[in-house]
From TrEMBL:
It comes from the Bacteria. NCBIfam families: PRK11639.1. Keywords: Cytoplasm, DNA-binding, Iron, Metal-binding, Repressor, Transcription, Transcription regulation, Zinc. It holds the Pfam family FUR. Homodimer. This is Ferric uptake regulation protein. It comes from Vibrio japonicus. Belongs to the Fur family.
Length: 149
C-alpha cells in the first residue's frame, strides 16, 4: 500500500530549497518522496531498498546523506524509538519540537505540535535551572485504524 504523492508538497520543498540556496538533488528528492508515500515510518534500510529499484547503484551512505539533508532542512523527522523517518507535517515551519504518536501495530506516526506542551516542559526545566536544547517526545499506542480492526 502506497500513499499518493502530494505534488504540491514536493513543489513547496523545491521552492524552499531554492530560496535557501541549497540543492535538492534528484536523490534527495526521491528519498523525500519515498518517505511521503510510505503509509508508515520508514527505516533507512527500507528506503534504500526502494531507492535501489530506480537507482541500483545506491548504497547506504547515499540514503544517510539524503536523510541528513532532509533533517537539516526540517522536511522530515527522525523517530528515535523506532529508528525510522517520517515527513514533517509543516515543512515550511521554523524549527520545532514535535510530539509523535507511534502506532505499535502499523508503525504509522502522527505528528502533533502543541506549543503549550512545549512551554510547560521549558517551564519545568527552568525550575531546575535547566535549558532545553533538544527533546524527544514519543508516545506509543494503537492508532484509530488499528483499533477499529
Ligand atoms: Zn514537524
Ligand atoms: Zn495503526
Amino acid at each position: 500500500m502506497v500513499k499518493s504523492l502530494d505534488q504540491q508538497l514536493v513543489k513547496q520543498i523545491e521552492e524552499i530549497c531554492a530560496s535557501r540556496g541549497v540543492r535538492l538533488t534528484t536523490q534527495r528528492k526521491r528519498v523525500f518522496e519515498l518517505i511521503c508515500t510510505s503509509p508508515k515510518a520508514s527505516s533507512a534500510y527500507e528506503l534504500l531498498e526502494q531507492l535501489q529499484k530506480v537507482e541500483p547503484q545506491a548504497k547506504p551512505p547515499t540514503v544517510y546523506r539524503a536523510l541528513d539533508f532532509l533533517l537539516d532542512q526540517g522536511f522530515i523527522h527522525r523517530v528515535e524509538s523506532t529508528n525510522s523517518y517520517i515527513q514533517c507535517c509543516s515543512c515550511n515551519a521554523h524549527q520545532h519540537y514535535s510530539h509523535l504518536l507511534i502506532c505499535d501495530k502499523c508503525s504509522n506516526v502522527i505528528e502533533l505540535q502543541d506549543d503549550s506542551l512545549v512551554a510547560l516542559l521549558v517551564e519545568n526545566a527552568e525550575k531546575h535551572g535547566f535549558t532545553i536544547t533538544n527533546h524527544v517526545l514519543e508516545t506509543h499506542g494503537v492508532c484509530r485504524n488499528c483499533r477499529s480492526e
